[in-house]
Predict the structure.
Amino acid sequence: MAWREDSSVRFINPYNFVSLGDRVNRADIDDEERELTGVISCALTTKTPLVIADHENVTESKEVAGHKIYDFFRVNGVPVIPGSGIRGMIRSAYEAVTDSCMSVCNVSILSARHPFPRKPGVVIYDGGKWSIYKAKKYMIKRPDRRGRGAGSDTGNTVYEIEYKNNRAYIKGTGYTTGSVVRFEMGSDYRKGNFTIGPTVRSIDTGSEEGVLLLWAYINNKHHNSVFVKQNERVVCANPDKAVNDFSVLMDMYVENDEKSYGPYKYTLNKDGRMYPVWYETVGDEVYLSPACISRTIFGNRLEDLIGSHKKCSRIDALCSACRLFGMVGDISSAGSRLRFSDALPEREIAETDFSRKTLAELAGPKTTSTEFYTRRPAGALTWNYDYKTTGYSQGGRPEPARQAEKAIIRGRKFYFHSRPAAENADKTLRNSTVTQLNEGVSFTFDLYYDGISRIQLRQLVWLLCMGENNIGSTLRYKAGHGKPIGLGSVKITVNNVIAREIESANGTPSYKTTEYNPDVFMSPVPFDTVKTYFREFMIMADAKTTQGKKVSYPAADSGRNDKNSRASHQWFIGNRQLGDGARGMKHNIKYTLPFLTENLELPALVQENTGQRPGGGYNRYNNRSRQAATEPKPAEETKPAADISEYNPLTLTCATCAKPFIYTAREQAGHEKLRQTNPKIGPPKNCPDCKKSKKAKK
């Protein structure tokens, strides 16, 4: 299978980024004038349907268990837009156009799945410190999918391995990861003309000694492993950090899938024992994992990558946004000078102003997609938050050349305006049904300010309506739920501005109240319009930017006709295969997220059958050099989708009697064909005998 661009379909990604400036300017909170107090009265009108989900009023679908249904947020029965939501929306905009700090910064661990196989090693705590050594891996072969020894492993023992009670039983003896075993070496395991690795001929006999790695059980697992410590130490600048990240990674696996990984989780203890790991080195940093192909816990987090744009922490050094909106630091805090009221409807909202909608699935932030979230480093074929890949070795299995380099993040994330899809999505566990307020409904709210300067007042009034104080303007905000799929576009207009100033006559203070026409604040623009971040924000805010264009998550088709064949992650798989010289595991990212001043459209990607292995993914049964050296077969020579020779019999466990049974190649081929029209068809849950018994009872 080979990926290509589909030039007939182009899309704009739902989100993009407003760039960060060179450095945040900070000042003491007492350096500014505070002579103005008053109120700005505003209207907010929905320009696309708006969803403000009431998380206190949730019901569950009667049709699909676990599917959530949310009503629109109400107070005493009246639909309301909370002032806190409006405040957050305006603050994000103000931070962007003034290049202020990133007050909301994700401090979570950054991680991603790495595509290259790692190297075997062992970790030991000895002499008061952690040490990592290289290891040699021996394969404890298991039966293949047909129940036989696979490949050309003549003379090597194939072991049935039974998993139960958190242990793996080999020849009746129960083992766990880190168990020390003696074994006799076997011959190399070969696949075709290629050597995959050495094997174990016999357990509990022989002169060799090693430790077992029994990571999570998967159906038809090819082999388990014995790691034998070598005398060469792996250079590591911070082994304590490497071990700690390993523990974090273990917890992440178990949290995601307790059933699969929980029983086989193991800890690197300070007990002098050897523990098997897989490792990868970049410079003098070492990344550890429990599996050859695993996830990477990166050393850098977002707050490490944003430089001076870190959240403000001291009142004597505050950015423009924190001086106005306030902040809470570790040792000091600054109160907000602004208060936003809830937005209440201008008129009584009828039930006909609402509609019930089942939304398309909304993806969470995919920070692993570094080609969208970060800038491409110089000379990088692929990259992440800690390092970049600059090339690959030639011949044999490709080895990537890595170089440590901090990622440069793209900036502040905002969503484009677009028209939402009219049709309802199918109800699933991963989406929700909501009550949405239709477009064309208006609310009013007040913004109270206390002790701000004249320039801050000008900035606030201008930014609320983005310089165009009319309801027909295409300069809008995004609010509420469903921003990536076109929901939540709203236009704010300013009705009036009242300011109260303190005057002093003959030493006696007095108050002067002035009502301003909002139009006097529209010109000149009270921000630096030359700055890239200002121009980019205005592009994001303008509904005309995407007018007549397709706005969607990345569009792709893997050609496999299954439920995931058109999922957006397929685009990223294809994108890694399209760069110059990319092939198999030699990835080279072609497209990055366009900058806002560029052409924003990207092409859809499709995968076509050319005889090459789908997606170029790592195949644990093949040496990758085999793919690199073999030309793809012509399309006409490839097998049809329903050819049973493409399938191997699988051993499944009956859900009723718990006995194993064979899921034949013919059954698999037939089910694959049926899935083209009914994606819900899956492998059988019961063995043939239990099926017959259930039919007889009916």
The longest helix spans residues 239-256.
